[in-house]
Amino acid sequence: MGPELKSKMAIYRLLQNSPLGPEEIAILTDAYERTLRALCLVDRNDPITDLIAKKIIELEQRGVREAKQLSALAIKELGVSPP
Q1: Residues 6 or more apart from 44 whose CB is under 8 A from it?
Q2: Residue ranges making up the domain that contains 56
Q3: Domain count, the chain
Q4: CA distance 48 to 22
Q5: Quick check: is 7 in a domain?
Q6: At what angle do helices 67-78 and 22-38 cross, to 10 degrees?
Q7: Could you say which DSSP state residue 42 is in?
Q8: Do 41 and 48 touch, CB atoms closer than 8 A?
Q9: The pTM is what?
Q10: Please, what is the end-to-end C-alpha distance for the chain in angstroms?
Q11: Separation between Cα atoms, residue 18 and residue 40, nearest integer Å
């Protein structure tokens, strides 16, 4: 498994049976990666990565469709601060 796939595991695992198309999945994975970078999270096994993935999916279901906005809202709603 390559480093890129491993870094996206939480979001891919949660989206594997999703009815979303490739474009929507690309936006969600971009938002997920942006959020992890913003929070300086490098341990993809950290439980917070699952919470982030779930929050990004929840925000998309509420109508947010842009990766940058998904990331910013996920950080805000989870109440976490970048270092």
Answers
A1: 6, 7, 9, 10, 36
A2: 3-78
A3: 1
A4: 25
A5: yes
A6: 50
A7: -
A8: yes
A9: 0.85
A10: 29
A11: 28
Q: Is residue 83 part of a domain?
A: no
Residue 27 identity: I
The token pair at 46 is 């950290």
Instruction: Output the average pLDDT for the chain.
Output: 89
Quickly tell me which residue has 């341990």 as its tokens: 43
* CA–CA–CA angle 7, 1, 10 (5° rounding): 35
CA distance 37 to 82: 9
**pLDDT tens sequence across 21-61:** 999 999 999 999 999 999 999 888 889 999 999 999 999 99
Axis crossing angle, helix 47-61 with helix 67-78, rounded to the nearest 10: 120
Residue 1 identity (one-letter amino acid)? M
C-alpha 8: how far from chain center: 8
Is 32 domain-assigned?
A: yes
Q: Is residue 55 part of a domain?
A: yes
